[in-house]
Amino acid sequence: MLQALFGDRPAEASHHGWPLVGADADSWRRTGEALREGKLDLLGLWGDTDAVTCVLHEPSTRRALSARLPVRAGKVPSLAQFHAPASRLERSITDLFGIEIVGLPDSRPWLDHGRWPLRRPLAMSPEGIAAQRPYEFLPTVGPHLHQVPVGPVHAGVIEPGHFRFTASGETIVRLEERLGYTHKGIEWLLRGKSLNEAARIAARACGDSTVSYSLAFARAVEAALHLQIPPRAHWLRATMAELERIANHLGDIGGICNDAAFSMMHAECGILREHALRACAIAFGHRLMMDRIVPGGVTVDLQPAGCAAILALIRQLRRQFPELVELYDSTASLQDRTVGSGSVPAALALQFAAPGYVGRACGRAFDARTCLPYPPYDVAPIELVTCSEGDVDARVRVRILEIERSCAWLQAALAALPPGPVRVPVDAEPQGGAEQPEGEALVEGFRGDILAAVRLGPQQRLERCHLRDPSWFLWPLLEVAIEGNIIADFPLCNKSFNCAYSGHDL
Amino acid sequence: MRRRLIKNLFSSPCTEAPPPRSATLEEAGAALRGAIARSLGRSLAIRAVDSGSCNGCELEIHALSNAFYDIERFGIRFVASPRHADVLLVTGPVTLNMRDALERTYQATPAPKWIVAVGDCGAGCGVFADSYACVGAVAKVIPVDLTIRGCPPTPTDLLQGLCWLLDPAVVR
Question: Which of A60, A147, A436, A440 is the most buried (most CB within 10 A)?
């Protein structure tokens, strides 16, 4: 399909990671139709001052390609009119760049709540503030329906967002999400920043995935600059990414069980998570491993004591985690809550290219580590885990298996760590002589695939950087998964998705 | 489950001794500590408010409840509503989209109340402070009584700060 759509177009020489081709209105429309027919996955869609770019993935050939459509008279045609997953991305493009998306079915603002001192902040000439208009939630019509607004300040220690439930009795008829509360202007802040400054900001786009964001950003920069980093750095990066995955999965499995009122699992998983974070602190000097991955390599080398701490963690997980899995399996009251609740239809998971464990729990066999492998997973593959039921229980099971696979992978990796340096300088001028080198990268965070796209300008300052969180494609599925469940099960379903707010709102 | 419970009954607890008192806090808040101890004794109800953090601070605040830090042994607990809270624990650089919600949460909290700003973002020295979409520090929106810095602060940092709010005689 990619071949048929864009095979005759030359790839831009200044762009690296995968090919970038120019698109026109006709090929954009045909791309939308191919997305609608399920022949392609949409991996990302973002704006610029003069163009919009989308990243497409063809599952049958495991190829990725970026297509860029120039903005004409401030307008571009909508992809969302063919492919619903593009909708919120396109609404955000309008909010940030002021580009009019022609044919967009839902033209309400998304990130812009009317509170910023300027409108379309990333456009060439931002406008002053306009009058605030209240956000129009979808209308509810029908007898016996009531609405329950929740948030943005939630009851738990979690990030802010607003949920508008429409319920009939206890049963949820519709959930409408309203996000954007944690919008920090990250893409605006990244503009004009040096690589070092930008790496610190990218690492804080989403705190629970800080390693993966740093990795995606660094890989995109290295792709743009054709920078080869030492082999040991690749392995250390993946070691951190797997530790981050293990720690988050442990925390969330406990959290899901806690939301089903089974606090013992929460306490036990909390202990294991704490051990994981302490091992990270010993090995890499920070519990969440923030700012450890930078363009050019990693900032800390793994010492024997750190290696021993990680191996001790793996031994402990091997000893204690199976007991907890058995506890999960043998507790009927827990299974009663998790099995069959929060189901995502497999067809929708495919349509939304559902990232991470949400997609894999519906049988979508995609993991950036295996489908678009990057070092060191190209030489040390990690086994893909899938399940088919698509409910809360399936998501828990995928994550349980992923912890086990990550442990096995880490153990083998630590035994095979290549020696040598862990960082190369990035101050050399880019090869190839492109004036504005561009690079893109896709990495698998614990929640799913994270996309980073960068364009560099003079003195290697960022001209444009876009970070796409997996949650963009997960939040809409949560709205579907919760339908027909009772309101009391929302925390359970929500936790089993664990979508990011900050990574989404940027 | 029974096996697990029996095993836990006979194994030693994970819970660790409270962190030593921080010298900087000693200087900063003697008056504050006295006021809280007089009003509340050894009971502190905390409402966490995320004003646009990256979620890093939230992860470490969560960790306070695990068996290692076990914050409830000090009489400190997290509550679900600002109406039940004595302390608002505020993270994030206060995005403009969250400013209203933060102000309204503050107004909904009954007096006496104290505000603790958590993390470099809340303190005003985070990476997002200069954005068009952020106020930049919690203290620019509501009065802050104590600041716990760090990106994110470790659970030990948080515990040190929060225990300071209580009577030191309690936290031995």
Answer: A440
Q: What is the pLDDT of residues B31-64, one digit of tens each?
A: 666 667 777 777 889 999 999 999 999 999 999 9
The answer on pLDDT for B172 being more than 50 is: no
For chain A, the structural domain boundaries read: 2-124, 186-504
pLDDT at position A8 is: 81
pLDDT tier at B28 (50, 70, 90 boundaries)?
Answer: low
ipTM value: 0.93
Contact across the interface for A160 and B51, Cβ inside 8 Å? yes
Interchain proximity A189–B92, CB inside 8 Å: no
Using a CB–CB cutoff of 8 Å, tell me whether B152 touches chain A: yes
**pTM given for the model:** 0.94
Give the pLDDT score at B171.
42
Encoded tokens for B54: 């990256």
pLDDT over 70 at B168, yes or no = no
Percentage of chain B surpassing pLDDT 70?
88
A356: left (phi over 0), alpha (psi -120 to 50) or beta: left
Give the Cβ contact number of residue A19 at 10 Å. Answer: 17
CA dist A274 and B68 (Å) reads 8
- Which of A110, A182, A250 best tests the B interface by mutation, with the highest count of B CBs <10 A? A182
Q: Which residue has the tokens 């994110």?
A: B152
**Among A201, A208, A277, whose Cβ lies nearest the Cβ of B55?**
A208
The CATH homologous superfamily for domain A186-504 is Cytochrome-c3 Hydrogenase, chain B (1.10.645.10)
Q: Domain A2-124 belongs to what topology?
A: Beta Polymerase; domain 2 (3.30.460)
Amino acid letter, residue A394: A
How many Cβ pairs within 8 Å bridge chains A and B?
148
Chain A partners within 8 Å of B133 (Cβ): 116, 121, 183-185, 188
For an interface test with A, give the residue of B57, B87, B95, B151 to mutate (most A CBs within 10 A): B95
Peptide bond connecting A373 to the previous residue in cis, omega within 30 degrees of 0? no
Angle at alpha carbon of residue A212, lines to A211 and A218, rounded to 5°: 90
Q: How far, in whole angstroms, is CA B46 from its chain's centroid?
A: 7
- Cβ atoms of residues A426 and A227 within 8 Å: yes
| Chain A residues near residue B82 by CB distance under 8 angstroms | 153
Q: What stretches in chain A show pLDDT beneath 50?
A: none
What's the Cα-to-Cα distance from B160 to each of A110, A289, B87, B124, rounded to whole Å? 40, 22, 15, 20
Contact across the interface for B131 and A184, Cβ inside 8 Å: yes
- Under 8 Å between Cβ of A271 and B68: yes
Q: Helix axis angle, A87-97 relative to A471-481, nearest 10°?
A: 130
A135 to chain B, any CB pair closer than 8 A? The answer is no
